[in-house]
Specification:
This protein is of the alpha/beta class. The protein has two domains: 116 residues, Response regulator (Rossmann fold, 3-Layer(aba) Sandwich); 98 residues, Arc Repressor Mutant, subunit A (Orthogonal Bundle), CATH 1.10.10. The protein has eight helices and twelve strands. Strands 2-1-3-4-5 form a five-stranded parallel β-sheet, sandwiched between helices. α2 runs parallel beside α3 and α6 packs across α8. It is globular and about 50 Å long. The relative contact order is 0.10.
Length: 224
């Protein structure tokens, strides 16, 4: 797997290059936003690790530019911790957000999740977690082999999360997908439907391990 690291901190880039190479990744890098777009076009990475605060073009502008021609997974790796920065990046098209300083094990786990997501999207219409199997082709759900009835809205929410396993999906993205408008306000509908899905699919709905809430941002489906 080839990874593009776009960050203007040479020490961080050097450390990440060594660590990722040791785990079998092929690494290319860019020191500013404009170079990141050029390198992405030339090297065609499988994943982009992107800082937000770069010279020439900031990270959100880079995300928007990349999304104009590629669906390569983008993980923002940034020191900005405000929820507004995270939501802006995710709404622009980033797949995930890791805050600096970070544990390398966490970053490697996110990369593995993206790899599973890409493989699933490419080859397998069935997404499995726990004892649940979601068949995206037939639009059916089973738990421990028994069929699970979902309402049409519950299915739409689960389907979107299942098509993006491991990735953080913002509330606004879900609202737009489920109701077809960016202007829909979250009046608790998403919390209601995620709660209903947990009751039907989680081993312990009060302590979810698969259908997770990212406070103030959105939801994530964790496989395994």
């Amino acid at each position: 797997m080839k990874i593009l690291i776009a960050d203007d901190d040479p020490q961080l880039v050097r450390a990440m290059r060594i660590t990722l190479a040791a785990h079998g990744y092929d690494v290319v890098s860019a020191a500013d936003g404009a170079e990141a777009i050029t390198v992405a076009a030339q090297a065609k990475p499988d994943v982009v690790l992107l800082d937000l605060g770069m010279p020439r073009l900031d990270g959100v502008a880079v995300i928007e530019a990349l999304r104009g021609w590629t669906d390569v997974p983008i993980v923002v790796v940034s020191g900005r911790t405000g929820s507004g920065d995270k939501v802006d990046a995710l709404d622009a098209g980033a797949d995930d957000y890791v805050t600096k300083p970070f544990q390398i094990d966490e970053l490697l786990a996110r990369l593995r999740a993206l790899a599973r997501r890409s493989l699933s999207a490419a080859s397998d219409p069935v997404v499995a977690f726990g004892d649940v199997r979601v068949d995206l082709a037939t639009k059916t759900v089973t738990r421990a082999g028994a069929p699970v009835h979902l309402t049409p809205t519950e299915w739409r929410m689960l389907e979107f999360l299942a098509r993006n396993p491991g990735a953080l999906v913002t509330r606004q993205t879900l609202l737009k997908d489920m109701w077809g408008s960016e202007q829909v306000a979250d009046t608790g509908y998403l919390r209601l439907y995620i709660s209903q899905l947990r009751k039907k699919l989680e081993p312990d709905p009060s302590t979810p391990v698969h259908l997770l809430t990212e406070q103030g941002m959105g939801y994530r489906l964790v496989l395994g």
